[in-house]
Amino acid sequence: MKVKHIIALYLLGVFIIIFGALFKIQHWPYGAEILSAGSFTEGLAVLLGIWKLLTTQKFKDFLNS
Description:
Elements: H1 3-25, H2 31-54, H3 57-64
Helix pairs in contact: 1-2
């Protein structure tokens, strides 16, 4: 997975959280579920980003220097 895809996934999570916050503020149904889905999406993007960072050879060379 490319870094641009991970960033796009993170931004999707941000937009879902904003959407869920709007639902919670307006007291519309499913606001909490939408917020949870957005948080899960952001968490997944962060985990993928950390995995990508740790499996990159240049990062390993940087840590060993």
